[in-house]
């Protein structure tokens, strides 16, 4: 957890602070915006208030009054390559809560703004097989099947809008 002085009011500024906290040097805010859709449903307001409250009380004391002006959930992604088995690109995404907070310490009448940056939960992992990425680059996605678990069944289907080969069905079920 980090507390920095200053007012932030955009997602881009929040992303820069999250990247600084995660030591992800050189990452652009557009990457965070791209991966924001992949995060689990957001941190609720009550959880954000709890995290901010404990950080503010720890830094400025229990008598400090504070109010969250705005907060964001920012994903920070770190890619890595794995060659074991099927070669794949692994994207590990960790969410950070960045909040702009107005504070008034008990020992002062003056108010100012601070930014609280704190990691949330466990990282989420996305695995992308290199054969899929290669097919995507080559425009040859008509041979790529998607498989997913559906209760006790393993379901396979073709991607929407992609061509089916002759004799193939859209969905086949196999007991898993």
Summarize the structure in words.
- The protein has 176 residues and is of the alpha+beta class.
- It has 2 domains: 2-132, no CATH class; 145-175, no CATH class.
- Helices cover 25% and strands 42% of the residues.
- It contains 4 helices and 7 strands, in the order βαααβββαβββ.
- It has helices at residues 11-22, 29-35, 45-60, 130-138; strands spanning 2-5, 65-82, 88-104, 112-129, 145-150, 153-158, 171-175.
- A 4-stranded antiparallel β-sheet has the order 1-4-3-2, with helices on both faces. It has a 3-stranded antiparallel β-sheet with strand order 5-6-7, with no helix packed on it.
- Strand 2 (65-82) and strand 3 (88-104) form a beta hairpin.
- Helix 1 packs across helix 2 (29-35).
- The longest helix has 16 residues, at 45-60.
- The radius of gyration is 22 Å and the shape is elongated.
- The two termini are 43 Å apart.
List the helices and strands and how they pair.
Blueprint: E1 2-5, H1 11-22, H2 29-35, H3 45-60, E2 65-82, E3 88-104, E4 112-129, H4 130-138, E5 145-150, E6 153-158, E7 171-175
Antiparallel strand pairs: 1-4, 2-3, 3-4, 5-6, 6-7
Helix pairs in contact: 1-2
Q: What distance separates the N and C termini? A: 43 Å
Low-confidence stretches: 160-176
Strand content: 35-45%
Shape: elongated
* Largest beta-sheet characterization: 4 strands, antiparallel
Radius of gyration in whole Å, from Cα? 22 Å
Overall tally of domains: 2
Helix-strand pattern, N to C? EHHHEEEHEEE
Mean pLDDT: 80
Widest sheet: strand ordering: 1-4-3-2
Q: How many distinct beta strands?
A: 7
> How much helix is in the residues?
25-40%
Estimated structural class? alpha+beta
What's the number of helices? 4
